[in-house]
Amino acid sequence: MSYELIAGVDLGSNSFRLQIGRVVGNRIHPVDTLKETVRLGSGLTREKLLDHASQQRAISALRRFGERLRGFEPETVRAVTTDAMRVARNARMVLLQAEAALGFPIEIIGGREEARLIYIGAANALTSALHRRLVVDIGGGSTEFIIGERTEPLLMESLFMGGISYRQRFFAEGKVDKKRFYAAEVSAAREIEAIAADYQRFGWQEAVGSSGSAQEIATLLETNELNPEGVRGISREGLAKLRQLLISAGSAEALELKGLSSDRLTILPGAIAIMSAVFSELGIEHMSHSDGALPLGVLYDLLGRFEHHDTRDDTVVHFRRRYQVDKAQVIRVERTAVALLGQMIKLDLPEHEDDVHFLRWAVSLHEIGLSVAHSEFHKHGAYIIGHADMPGFSKRDQARLALLVLGQRGKLQKLASMPAGDANWRLVFCLRLAVLLHRARDDHPLPELSVRESPVGFELDVPPGWPNANPMTASALTDEALLWRRIGIKVRIRSVPDETAVGLNLLEKA
User: Fold this and answer.
1) pTM score above 0.85
2) Which parts of the chain span the membrane according to its record (predicted)?
3) What's the average model confidence in pLDDT over 14-28?
């Protein structure tokens, strides 16, 4: 499947950005960009709630983005949101309104996933190089640090410090003096200190700043000739001069510099303080700038999914190896679960693509909890999936995957919050049945089974004589039906003559 135009939306703590790109081979050529200064992070109250004003700014901006995206297919648009939504306690309610305004789903991504996408965007906007690069992205609420080679991120971290959060903590009402600025620098230095040794040990040959704050600082240094002669980007000497000019002026608004953007005045003091600490703690003398950042990274990640190189597949394989999951058992359970699902839906239809992916991923990871303890391993596995950094997965993706792993066994009341008719019920049923049928962990052929959905639940047909020949499994199926009945879903198990069975031999269909 290929598309000419794809779109990435970045709902940052300071600005919202929409980037539309034209796909030409394996490259993306930006054709349109929209930016709205929303300052979502400024709307976070002490109780970590997004206030009404910030919500309205966000909704208005997304309605404008939604108009530009009219006619785009759902699979050609990926929208992500970062620190402000990660922190906000009312994020779920706000997200519903935001998705309605934009017209597309919005994913809340974790800090390291944000870092991964930032690096992909920055690297693809730079000329190709064989050496390692350090990319630093100072946002409104967080700052990301990534070391990578070519377009592959290798070391990623996200620290809770940004231009908006630092304005609120250190530069109330925009006031800047030596004491306030020093306090902000020290705070940032303490955050960076925790990762500095690992990053310096890993090493890099070029430092790159991405996103608006780095671009703003670089522009001010170049336009006002604060860097040493002939030096472009951000230099240690130029940054020190800018720092002193800001302190002397008393506020960003009072700075008399060419190229100063009014949109970024509120976050500039915090960004300069953080950048100064970055240079100091990591021993940086010079930093270049990349025009690519999170929106472009989102586009390239989306392109990878079209080309069947989904980062989420790589992540699942990594987790399966890391937690020493039994690969042979994964193959058995996946073969059966997918075959059962294929009797209820057409697996090759685009609208079912996500369901098939999530069922396969859930099977691959359903036993990772065994690395913690055998008792209630499904709960351990769900916790790991729900809280780990999983590149490529949004917070919503991880929650869905964790739910499936949690639901593989035991009582079903824990899933009772899922609405009736939710596609996940079908996936849970297939996963539970496959796990139950392969309890022996061997390759003994399974009988011909037929499953289908009914208005009140599911129906399972098994060959006559099979229950008597397999009393332990038959008893487990009866218990399983009782568990479903307790949450109001009926599972009917029937024995039917071999010649009328419409099922398939699952082993032979592998």
Assistant:
1) no
2) none
3) 92
